Amino acid sequence: MIYDHILDKRQLRQAFERAAASYDQAAVLQREVGERMLSRLEYIKYTPDWILDMGSGTGYGSRKLIERYPHSKLLALDIALAMHLQARQPVPRWQQWLPLGKRAMTHYVGADIEQLPLRDACVDMIWSNLTIQWCNDLKQTFAETHRVLKKGGLLMFSTFGPDTLKELKQAFKTVDSYNHINRFTDMHDIGDLLVYSGFATPVMDMEYITLTYQEVMDIMRDLKTIGAHNVTHGRQRGLTGKGRWQQVVKHYESFRQAGRLPATFEVVYGHAWKPEPRQAVLNPETRRKLGLE
Questions:
Q1: Which residues of 197-207 are buried (b: 16+ CB within 10 A; e: fewer)?
Q2: What is the DSSP code string of 199-257?
Q3: Who contacts 215 (Cβ-Cβ below 8 Å, separation ≥6)?
C-alpha cells in the first residue's frame, strides 16, 4: 500500500456529508453507470431475498433495485449519514396496505464498507455502484463482501480504472508532484483479488465514458459537488497558487475538441459468485462402506 495514496476516511466522510444535498444535481455519470449495471441484471436469472446496496448514497440505485425486486429486503449502507437523510422517502400509499412480508423494505446502515457491521452469510446479493474506489484495502473489502454473502450469492459492482481523469492528471503533472487525483486499481488486478478472496467465475469488463465541459472549473466544481475531490494523505495542503492554476488550465486547454473540454472516466464493471461448498463424489463401494446407500 502506498501511503501517499491512502484515503483519509474522516475527510472522505465529511466530503460526502457536505455533498449530500447537491449530489443528485451533478451525479450524471453515477446514474448512467447505475443504469448500465441494471441492464446487466437482465442476463442474470437470480432473485435475492436480501440485497446490500454498498455505498448507497442518496438512494437512486436502491430505489431501482426495489423496483426490480419488489419482494426483496434491502440494506442501504453508506459512510455518510447525510446521504441517508437524502435517500429516505415516505412509504408509497399503495405499499402501506400490504402485509409487512410483501412490502419492499429498505433498512439504512451507516458504516465503512471495509468493515461491514453485518453477520456472516446474511445477504443474497451485494450491489455497489462506483464506491469501492474509496477503499484503502480492496482485499479487505472483498473479504468482507465474501463473508456477509450467503453461499451462492452474487456480488455486482462498478468502479473507476487508472485512466480516469487522465486529462486532469496530465495537467497537474506540469506544475508539481503532489497527488491531485485518487489512485484507481487496474481491472485485471481487481479480478485477481476476487479469485484470491474466494469468489468464483468473476466476469470483468470496462469502457470509457467521456463527459465534456465548457471550462476546467466546471469539471472541478462537478467533482466537488459529488464529494469526489482528492482526500488522499499525499494531497497538497492549501490552495494551488494562481500561477500554477493558470498553468494547469493552459495545459488542459490543449485537450479541447469541438469547443469542449473532455473528462475521461475508465469505468470497470465486475460480478462474481460466492460458490456453493463442494461435495465429494464418492464411488458406490465407498458409499456402501459408509452406510450411505
A1: bebeebeeebe
A2: -EEEEEEEEEEEEEESSHHHHHHHHHHTT-S--BTTBPSSPPPHHHHHHHHHHHHTT-B
A3: 261
**E strand intervals along the chain:** 50-54, 73-78, 105-110, 123-129, 149-160, 200-213, 261-273
Q: What residues pair up with 157 in beta bridges, in sequence order?
A: 128, 270
Sign, CA dihedral 8-11-17-18, equals negative
pLDDT digits (tens, 9 = 90+) for 118-133: 999 999 999 999 999 9
What's the CA gap between 138 and 118, in Å, rounded?
Answer: 18
Q: Are strands 149-160 and 123-129 parallel, antiparallel or unpaired?
A: parallel
* Chain centre to alpha carbon of residue 90: 26
CA triplet 265, 270, 274: central angle to 5 degrees? 155
Q: How far apart are CA 216 and CA 188, in angstroms?
A: 31
Please tell me the distance from the alpha carbon of residue 39 to that of residue 128, in angstroms, as a whole number.
14
Query: 153 vs 38, 79, 107, CA distance in Å?
Result: 17, 23, 19
pTM, two decimals, is 0.84
Reduced to 3 states (helix: H, G, I; strand: E, B; else coil), residue 179 is strand
Rounded CA separation 204/187 (Å) = 7
Low pLDDT (below 50) residues in the chain:
1-4, 100-103, 234-235, 237-239, 290
